[in-house]
């Protein structure tokens, strides 16, 4: 009780915070089940919070993402990656036709939010 009133505090946290630390733009795709995929383009150094509505039965705290650097015409989408609190660390990604096109994805969890 605060001055006789009953109060509740809600803190809304994003499920995922995406940050691009590459020196080029990166497209990030999240599949929305039976809906069209959602794609976000991140400029170098940009961070965005990603929120979405969870469907009943959906595994909350887990998200499937794909990545594609926007630096050349030979860039390719990564394989779908399951990012969750149980998949923490650095993950190598092949994003092009040559061995030089290996990138890394860093995943960390903090207070229920995935930092990717």
Helix-strand layout with pairing:
Blueprint (H helix, E strand, L loop, with lengths): L15 E4 L6 E7 L2 E8 L4 E4 L11 E8 L11 E4 L4 E6 L7 E9 L2 E3 L1
Considering the chains and any ligands shown, give keywords for the structure.
mainly beta; five-stranded mixed β-sheet
Briefly say what this structure is.
Helix content is 0%, strand content 46%.
Report on the architecture of this protein.
- The mean pLDDT is 76.
- The radius of gyration is 17 Å and the shape is elongated.
- The chain is 0% helix and 46% strand.
- The protein has strands spanning 16-19, 26-32, 35-42, 47-50, 62-69, 81-84, 89-94, 102-110, 113-115.
- The N and C termini lie far apart (39 Å).
- The protein has 116 residues and is mainly beta.
- It has a five-stranded mixed sheet with strand order 4-1-9-8-7, with no helix packed on it. Strands 3-2-5-6 form a four-stranded antiparallel sheet, with no helix packed on it.
């Amino acid at each position: 009780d605060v001055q006789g009133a009953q109060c509740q505090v809600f803190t809304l946290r994003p499920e995922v915070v995406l940050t691009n630390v590459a020196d080029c733009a990166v497209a990030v795709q999240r599949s929305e089940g039976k809906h069209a995929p959602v794609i976000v383009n991140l400029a170098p150094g940009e961070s965005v919070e990603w929120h979405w509505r969870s469907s009943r039965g959906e595994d909350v705290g887990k998200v499937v993402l794909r990545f594609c650097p926007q630096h050349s015409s030979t860039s390719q989408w990564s394989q779908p990656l399951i990012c969750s609190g149980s998949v923490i660390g650095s993950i190598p990604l092949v994003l092009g036709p040559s061995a030089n096109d290996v990138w890394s994805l860093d995943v960390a969890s903090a207070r229920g939010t995935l930092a990717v």
